[in-house]
Amino acid sequence: MKLLEEAGIYVFTGVSTRFNTINRLDPYASYHSTAMTEFFQTVNLMAQYPNTLGLHAGNSITNSPKNQRAAPVIKAVVRDLKEYMKLQNAASGQRILPIGYTAATVDLLDTTLLKYLSVGDPASAIDFWTCNCYMWAGKSNLQMSGYNSLIQRLQDAAIPIFMSEYGVNMPNPRLFEETLALYSPQMSQVFSGGCAYTFWEAPNSYGLVDLVNQEHPRNSSAEAVEQRHQVALTRANNTKKTAEKRYTDRGTLSVFHDFIRYRENLKATRDIESTWEGDVMEREAAERGNVDTTQMSWPWEPEHQMPDTVVDWQQLEDELSGKGLLYVM
Question: What is the pTM of this model?
Answer without folding.
Answer: 0.89
